[in-house]
């Protein structure tokens, strides 16, 4: 057992209002400068939708992340470093700027400076790359709120028959994304220069700006497309988990400014020696459990001892013990990894969105608020569980279903308390929890006080 | 090969500083302290300053503004709101992406850095100024010369702005003001700046200046159509709503036409989180809006039919909870807190008037305003609390809702029955039908009476045994209003669903004692008939005992922003410390007349009537009638300069009021609104700050461009044919163009308004000034502070208006001196004026129905002395009227001697010996000191005064904070909770969440209505004219019938006709931020229209295609966003995208495409013009016609994809 500490994040998608405040505050703080105009370390995608860069999840095209080879060994999906060295000057798996979007501005000055003319002055869009006039036809968030046809969503390939894009059956939710700061980062493994590294003390994955040679293999290697190329400096850049803030005890910009109050930051302790084996389990649907198996119980005496031996400070161990991320991933098991099938062991996890539930069930003639109908309701989710499973569990609906049942049980159990009725302990029992656990989970998810979120 | 691979990787062990994992996958490294100094440097900053955003936004979020090397770098939210308790979520971190992008403006290329003047005008002015030697003479010559005036007016909006100096620009501005006052009168000046709550000092700056001049301040709440007219109608209150933290307390939450994640971004989390307590959430929206994601149920009624759904829900609640079953909590609530038990006369088989003590023959004070109930024995009695007890000696201590032993009968049942004829409007096109239904009646004082409750059951079609008339056979009777099946035919929402939601809503309220809530917003409120829609909503929350209960009731969120320190703000903004009354104007009527939109109404005002009282009259005629009867203000007042009128009165040796009345009666003098197109009645100077009229709120934008500004426009409509023209208002064959002489705008960014302005002054941004900020969404007051000094030549609004005032005063000393002005002030709410019209009977002196008596049958005519040379000195100091008259809010007068003494020491003394408010921080201190919400001494003082009138205990609500006074420094250090005060109807006492009307319910303080209770029944003549005594359903206006537009769904060679809605935008707060590069990068980068997949397919439009939208009002060019989340037959053009960003020329007229409001126009509902009667009395932004815009249709087609600019 080699104990390491990892700074991790959980986002409760059930609370995300899709406002993009996180994206803007992040951009203002970090990438509001030339060379990275098109870069959003944090972005928010409407799902179903193509994402940013578009169709980044299509690993058959981009070949990011890891795959098992015929011998069951973990290999970079895009090919090993040798292959990367051989293709270093012509990286074929790199999204083009149009896949992100061609950044633009407007000739705003004309609004003030226009001479007397026939028509009202107007600011036209100008490419920030070429300076030429352009028609805006793609942006960092083009399909916001289901704008444009959603049928190019990569995840629909396997479940197209279960999703209909009709007015009455509309569904959507938002997926905010930052770098996953993976336990098994394929960006780092893809870098011929060794410029990408994982900080020993907190697991934050960074690009060494001095060592980066701009080969962009990390951009290809990252299946989440969260490493970007600064076309001015010629270096790779990525989300830093706001390490200058985190180091002094302030949450990341995206977390602290999240008005949905849905982001949790905390430490996870894990066994670094177990990562490779976990990332190599044969079935991609086992990866979620395998990754949870890598995490260590920060309260277990042997883990504490091993952690101290590994030089992890006492206050960090305490932080891991009271980590909300640990509680959501391990204790309540309501958070799930994003695309575990990429085998990078991502460390930004998500609570899948619960609602809306009832309006589908009501058509069956039942009062869906009735607790006896709770779980029937989940099977009739407006957001298909199968779609969520494509995101979080490599297609296995069972873990998603289990999370949604817990959330539904929490609402039902708490309604009795809120209305001043006697609590019904059969509700938590049905999802393998006690009333007390439900109540604690409720406090973490609903009250979500500042010092409990971070 | 893998082996070689590994070997290569393995070499990294030797070449890197870090540690490569044994399996070669990962490289670990301690820290990165050197390699990543770039990000550490990026993060470093010199200071963090607290500020916020003062746009037209409810957020009131406190922000950290980061500054490095004297440059603003970015912003992030403050998280230091005081806790709301251990068992609730907190207010941190309020904010949204728009606000987070604000700092982009500071140094952006759209920033207004210097004063600009229209080049053509400036050249003429310089020439004339030099030749004539006098600024006023120079201005007079230019605007007086039709050729010269035309020369600069006709090029408005066409570029050609040139830089000027502050000295030159302000001299020209001052000259324009002086000339206009001298020539036409101060009431030809108007100022527009909306909603002070978000930056009250900035708002007060210009408002104070205009009030000192005698210019008119234009209302905004009604103008924006955000005013729910139902609120004064039902509650006698402008609007009072729960803070967002109170959503947490609700057990059942309906979001009805309010898209919380988009329009209440900082608050939406309360809704998301309350679900975890087991709150059920229902979304009512015609599209799959952002908030639908959170809802347990989604009801998608056809746009504008929300009232039908609510009426059917009311039907179910009344039937199941009042008739089939009696719920004690509900019955007790409606007896005590609503007008349901009050008696109404029946006249000619229709609802008549509220029965009063006068009808009973009681010779008591204010008898016609004391309403009557039946006691348990059926004897008519006059309970405390009605309007008649609010004023006069005998009402002292009796204006309360304490019923004592009295238990009023809800129903008159037990005697005879009678049929009443009730109107229905559900026919296609909204035409009037009738239905006959029976009510139980009694004979009281020789009259046939019933109760409001009985009428309500009849109206809702809830049958009881033994009553005659037509009744629904059951919920599935689709022909009889207002059953669930009936609403399905209107809304498309399944009948059983509507019934079930109603049942759940009421059952939750029954179990939780009133904790069911409806969050309602623009989607329901921006319709022409918003008042009937809202009354049907309020019926649901009131019947179920939810109003005045934490977690229950209405939560109206659109434009409702609360100036918590209202008294202090009002003093500064209205300059009531120096002169009273101010000149206020209902903006919708102002522009309806002055942009000549009234000329394009080809139908009579009687179109909506169920009677014949409006026959032969146009809407403009009704505006004139309302003005001359003193109901609503009208500006300009008369077809004479009011300064000259006063002089003429003096010359004639008559008191001013007598003089005016005599000349009006003679016909020698007329109200200006009776001839709005006569040049002497034009508005001449308009100043806009903190606003973008022409890119945002100007409904009928193209009519503004044509008639007000006199420049190119896109109007295609025809003017009214002779038979539809006004009867009393003079018609000029030639419609004037270019009425306005000066359009002045202060802004920090370029907008349509600045582009069309004659003078643009560069304003400081929200990060460059001191100011105060509040909202009703949370209970804190917090501050603006300059992160940097105003850069380039920008100035704060306070500074800018002080500058203008000084230049003006200097010119005025020579040209104007001291004059007497005549203010024609309407009958005011919360004063005895509201007893001017007993029974809401219309008495038009001009029709010979009564004598013209100022303050009773016509406006008050008040002489006001104006020392124009002293305007600047008065602006900068607090005047002496405060000493003698105090400061009044909602009928409560605060004595502020102690506060003035404090301000003398805190702010210093001005040269005129008065407390100084020379600087913006001084103004902040004055506002805080002079308001009950921020000064516990005043709050308790006000409550004690109210205790004397009501006879109930109140002062304890503020007593816990009697010694607390919030200073500006407090608001700088962190958001500060406010104090419970009689200025508002809810209570924060003991740290509870704010919910409106809690004081009314818990302390039995009456509502400010006729009965003193929440009102279901309105008996004013004009309400009766429209058949709207009770909540009812009126469909959206039929634009085909009214204007000959094609019908929705019609498809021709010009395209397809669709409903045209303009909801709030995700990427802007009104027009602000829509031009911000961050917001443009996260959206479609320019004007866009959302349409359904089906409609797009019909006209061959694909996502992002250029399209053109055309109707009689104008033309829009935009790109299409095609989505299956949109319902067929309806498009959304999110409002206020402005015309300055990527808008090409149109194919239709070859000119620049318009804004969202180029396709809309003003349409005035006559009942919004009522005044002088109980809660239907004017107060600024409290009552007035709404600038609604939702009933419109447009034709949409794909256009050439080759666009030209």
Summarize it:
The complex is a heterodimer of chains A (454) and B (1205). With 454 residues, chain A is α+β, with helices and mostly antiparallel strands.
Notes on the structure:
The complex is a heterodimer of chains A (454) and B (1205). Chain A has helices spanning 21-31, 59-62, 81-86, 97-100, 109-113, 156-159, 186-190, 217-221, 243-246, 253-256, 275-279, 287-294, 301-309, 314-321, 324-331, 358-361, 374-379, 385-392, 397-418, 426-430, 435-447, 450-453, and strands at 3-12, 43-47, 66-68, 74-76, 104-106, 125-127, 173-177, 196-199, 205-207, 227-230, 235-238, 263-271, 336-337, 348-351. In chain A, the strands form 6 sheets. In chain A, strands 12-1-14-13 form a 4-stranded mixed beta sheet. Chain A has 22 helices and 14 strands. With 454 residues, chain A is α+β, with helices and mostly antiparallel strands. Chain A folds into 2 domains: 16-102 and 138-254, Alpha-Beta Plaits (2-Layer Sandwich), CATH 3.30.70; 266-453, nitrate reductase domain fold (Orthogonal Bundle). Chain A is 33% helix and 14% strand. Chain B is an alpha/beta fold and 1205 residues long. Among the domains of chain B are: 237-314 and 484-556, Dimethylsulfoxide Reductase, domain 2 (3-Layer(aba) Sandwich); 340-482 and 1012-1025, no CATH class; 1044-1198, Barwin-like endoglucanases (Beta Barrel). Chain B contains 40 helices and 39 strands. In chain B, strands 7-6-25-24-23-8-9-22 form an 8-stranded mixed beta sheet. In chain B, strand 26 and strand 27 (780-784) form a beta hairpin. In chain B, helix 5 (119-132) packs across helix 6 (135-144). Chain B starts with a helix and ends in a 7-residue tail after the last strand. Mean pLDDT of chain B is 96; it is low at 1-5 and 7-15. At the A-B interface, helix 1, helix 3, strand 5, helix 5 and strand 8 of A face helix 1, strand 2, helix 3, strand 5 and helix 11 of B.
């Amino acid at each position: 057992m080699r104990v390491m500490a990892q700074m991790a994040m959980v986002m409760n998608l059930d609370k995300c209002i899709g406002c993009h405040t996180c994206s803007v505050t992040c951009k203002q703080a970090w990438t509001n400068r030339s060379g990275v105009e098109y870069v959003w370390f944090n972005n928010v995608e409407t799902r179903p939708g193509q994402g940013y860069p578009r169709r980044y999840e299509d690993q058959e095209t981009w070949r990011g992340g890891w795959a098992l080879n015929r011998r069951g060994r973990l290999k970079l999906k895009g090919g090993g470093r040798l292959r990367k060295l051989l293709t270093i000057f012509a990286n074929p798996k790199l999204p083009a700027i149009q896949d992100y979007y061609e950044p633009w501005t407007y000739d705003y000055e004309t609004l003030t400076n226009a001479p007397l003319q026939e028509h009202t002055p107007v600011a036209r869009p100008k490419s920030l790359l070429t300076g030429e006039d352009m028609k805006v036809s793609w942006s960092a968030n083009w399909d916001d709120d289901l704008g444009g046809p959603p049928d190019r969503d990569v995840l629909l390939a396997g479940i197209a028959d279960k999703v209909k894009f009709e007015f009455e059956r509309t569904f959507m939710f938002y997926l905010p994304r930052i770098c996953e700061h993976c336990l098994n980062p394929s960006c780092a493994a893809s870098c011929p220069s060794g410029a990408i590294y994982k900080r020993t003390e907190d697991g934050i994955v960074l690009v060494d700006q001095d060592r980066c040679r701009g080969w962009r293999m990390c951009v290809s290697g990252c299946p989440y497309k969260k490493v970007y190329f600064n076309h001015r400096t010629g270096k790779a850049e990525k989300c830093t988990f706001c390490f200058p803030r985190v180091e002094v005890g302030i949450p990341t910009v995206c977390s602290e400014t999240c008005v949905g109050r849905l982001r949790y930051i905390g430490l996870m302790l894990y066994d670094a020696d177990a990562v490779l084996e976990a990332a190599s389990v044969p079935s991609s649907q086992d990866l979620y459990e395998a990754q949870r198996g890598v995490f260590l119980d920060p309260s277990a005496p042997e883990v504490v001892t091993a952690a101290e031996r590994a030089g992890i400070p006492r206050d960090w161990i305490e932080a891991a013990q009271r980590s909300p991320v640990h509680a959501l991933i391990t204790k309540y098991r309501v958070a799930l990894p994003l695309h575990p099938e990429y085998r990078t062991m991502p460390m930004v996890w998500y609570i899948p969105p619960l609602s809306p539930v009832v309006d589908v069930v009501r058509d069956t003639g039942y009062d869906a608020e009735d607790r006896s109908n709770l779980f029937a309701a989940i099977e009739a989710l407006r957001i298909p569980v199968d779609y969520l499973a494509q995101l979080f569990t490599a297609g296995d609906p069972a873990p998603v279903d289990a999370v949604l049942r817990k959330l539904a049980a929490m609402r039902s159990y708490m309604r009795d308390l809120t209305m001043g009725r006697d609590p019904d302990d059969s509700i938590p029992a049905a999802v393998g929890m006690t009333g007390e656990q439900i109540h604690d989970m409720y406090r973490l998810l609903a009250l979500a006080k500042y010092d409990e979120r971070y | 090969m893998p082996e070689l691979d590994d070997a290569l990787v393995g070499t990294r062990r030797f070449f890197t500083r870090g540690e490569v994992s044994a399996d070669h996958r990962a490289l670990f490294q301690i820290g990165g302290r050197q390699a990543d100094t770039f990000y550490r440097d990026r993060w470093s900053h010199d200071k963090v300053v607290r500020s916020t955003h003062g746009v037209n936004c409810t957020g009131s979020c406190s922000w950290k503004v980061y500054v490095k090397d004297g440059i603003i770098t970015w912003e992030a939210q403050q998280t230091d709101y005081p806790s709301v308790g251990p068992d609730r979520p907190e207010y941190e971190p309020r904010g949204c992406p728009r606000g987070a992008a604000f700092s982009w403006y500071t140094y952006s290329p759209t920033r207004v850095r210097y004063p600009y003047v229209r080049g053509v005008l400036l050249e003429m002015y310089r020439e004339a100024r030099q030749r004539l030697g006098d600024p006023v003479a120079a201005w007079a010559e230019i605007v007086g010369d039709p050729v010269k005036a035309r020369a600069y007016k006709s090029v408005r909006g066409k570029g050609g702005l040139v830089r000027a100096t502050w000295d030159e620009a302000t001299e020209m501005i001052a000259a324009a003001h002086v000339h206009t006052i001298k020539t036409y009168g101060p009431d030809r000046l108007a100022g527009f700046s909306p909603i002070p709550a978000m930056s009250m000092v900035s708002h007060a700056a210009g408002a104070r200046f205009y009030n000192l001049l005698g210019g008119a301040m234009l209302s905004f709440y009604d103008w924006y159509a955000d005013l729910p007219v139902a609120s004064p109608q039902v509650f006698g209150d402008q609007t009072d709503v729960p803070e967002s933290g109170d959503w947490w307390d609700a057990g059942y939450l309906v979001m009805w036409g309010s898209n919380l994640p988009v329009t209440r971004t900082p608050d939406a989390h309360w809704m998301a989180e309350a679900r975890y307590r087991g709150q059920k959430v229902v979304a009512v929206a015609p599209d799959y809006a952002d908030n639908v994601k959170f809802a347990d149920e989604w009801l998608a009624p056809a746009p504008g039919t929300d009232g039908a759904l609510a009426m059917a829900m009311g039907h179910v609640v009344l039937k199941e909870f009042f008739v089939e079953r009696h719920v004690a909590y509900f019955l007790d609530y409606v007896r005590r807190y609503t007008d349901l038990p009050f008696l109404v006369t029946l006249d000619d088989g229709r609802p008549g008037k509220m029965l009063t003590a006068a009808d009973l023959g009681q010779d008591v004070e204010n008898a016609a305003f004391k309403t009557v109930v039946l006691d348990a024995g059926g004897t008519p009695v006059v309970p405390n609390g009605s309007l008649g007890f609010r004023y006069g000696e005998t009402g002292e201590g009796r204006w309360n809702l304490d019923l004592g032993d009295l238990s009023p009968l809800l129903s008159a049942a037990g005697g005879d029955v009678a049929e009443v004829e009730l109107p229905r409007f559900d026919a296609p096109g909204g035409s009037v039908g009738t239905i006959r239904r029976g009510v139980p009646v009694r004979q009281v004082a020789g009259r046939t009476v019933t109760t409001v409750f009985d009428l309500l059951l009849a109206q809702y079609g809830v049958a009881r045994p033994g009553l005659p008339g037509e009744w629904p056979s059951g919920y599935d009777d689709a022909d009889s209003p207002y059953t669930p099946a009936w609403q399905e035919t209107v809304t498309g929402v399944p009948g059983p669903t509507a019934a079930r939601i109603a049942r759940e809503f009421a059952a939750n309220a029954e179990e939780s004692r009133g904790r069911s809530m409806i969050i309602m917003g623009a989607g329901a409120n921006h319709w022409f008939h918003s008042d009937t829609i809202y009354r049907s909503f309020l019926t649901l929350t009131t019947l179920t005992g939810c109003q005045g209960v934490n977690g229950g009731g209405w939560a109206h969120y659109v434009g409702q922003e609360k100036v918590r320190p209202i008294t202090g703000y009002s003093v500064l903004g209205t300059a009531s410390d120096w002169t009273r009354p101010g000149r206020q104007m209902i903006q919708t009527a102002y522009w309806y007349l002055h942009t000549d939109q009234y000329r394009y109404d080809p139908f009579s005002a009687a179109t909506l009537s169920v009677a014949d009282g409006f026959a032969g009259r146009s809407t403009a005629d009704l505006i004139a009638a309302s003005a001359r009867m003193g109901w609503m203000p009208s500006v300009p007042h008369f077809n004479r300069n009011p300064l000259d009128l006063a002089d003429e009165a003096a010359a004639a040796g008559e008191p001013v009021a007598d003089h005016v009345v005599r000349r009006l009666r003679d016909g020698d003098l007329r109200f200006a609104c009776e001839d709005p197109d006569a040049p002497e009645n034009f508005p001449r100077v308009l100043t806009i700050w903190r606003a973008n009229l022409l890119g945002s709120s100007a409904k009928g934008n193209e009519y503004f461009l044509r008639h007000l500004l006199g420049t190119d426009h896109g109007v295609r409509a025809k003017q009214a044919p002779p038979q539809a023209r006004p009867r009393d208002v003079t018609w000029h064959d030639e419609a004037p163009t270019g009425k306005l002489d000066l359009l002045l705008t202060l802004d920090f960014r370029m907008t349509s308004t600045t582009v069309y302005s004659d003078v643009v002054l560069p304003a400081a941004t929200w990060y460059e000034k001191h100011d105060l900020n509040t909202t009703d969404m949370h209970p804190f007051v917090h501050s603006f502070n300059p992160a940097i000094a105003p850069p380039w030549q920008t100035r704060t609004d306070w500074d800018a208006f002080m500058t203008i005032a000084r230049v003006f005063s200097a010119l005025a000393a020579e040209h104007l001196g001291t004059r007497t002005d005549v203010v024609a002030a309407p009958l005011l709410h919360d004063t005895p004026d509201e007893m001017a019209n007993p029974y809401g009977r219309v008495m038009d002196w001009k029709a010979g129905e009564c004598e013209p008596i100022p303050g009773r049958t016509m406006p008050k005519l008040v002489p006001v002395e104006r020392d124009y040379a002293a305007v600047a000195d008065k602006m900068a100091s607090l005047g002496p009227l405060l000493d003698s008259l105090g400061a009044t809010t909602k009928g409560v007068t605060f004595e502020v001697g102690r506060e003035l003494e404090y301000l003398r020491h805190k702010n210093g003394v001005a040269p005129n010996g008065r407390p100084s408010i020379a600087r913006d921080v001084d103004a902040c201190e004055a506002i805080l000191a002079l308001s009950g919400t921020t000064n516990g001494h005043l709050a308790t003082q006000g409550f004690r005064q109210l205790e004397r009138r009501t006879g109930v205990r109140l002062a304890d609500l503020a007593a816990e904070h009697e010694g607390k006074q919030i200073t500006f420094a407090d608001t700088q250090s962190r958001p500060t909770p406010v104090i419970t005060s009689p200025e508002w109807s809810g209570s924060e006492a003991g740290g509870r969440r704010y919910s409106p009307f809690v004081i009314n319910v818990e302390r039995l303080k009456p509502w400010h209505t006729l009965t003193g209770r929440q009102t279901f029944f309105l008996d004013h003549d004009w309400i009766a004219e429209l058949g709207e005594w009770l909540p009812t359903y009126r469909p959206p206006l039929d634009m085909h019938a009214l204007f000959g537009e094609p019908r929705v769904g019609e498809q021709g060679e010009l395209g397809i006709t669709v409903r045209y809605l303009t909801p709030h935008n995700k990427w802007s707060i009104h027009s602000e931020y829509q031009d911000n590069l961050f917001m443009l990068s996260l959206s479609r980068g320019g004007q866009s229209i959302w349409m359904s997949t089906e409609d797009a397919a019909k006209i061959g439009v694909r996502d992002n295609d250029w399209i053109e939208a055309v109707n009689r009002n104008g033309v829009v060019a935009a790109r299409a966003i095609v989505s299956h989340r949109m319902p067929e037959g309806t498009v959304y053009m999110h409002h206020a995208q402005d015309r300055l960003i990527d808008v090409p020329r149109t194919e239709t007229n070859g000119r620049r495409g318009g804004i969202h409001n180029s396709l809309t126009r003003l349409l005035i509902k006559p009942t919004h013009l009522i005044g002088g009667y109980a809660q239907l009395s004017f107060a600024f932004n409290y009552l007035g016609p709404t600038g609604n815009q939702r009933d419109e249709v447009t034709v949409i087609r794909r256009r050439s994809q080759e666009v030209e600019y």
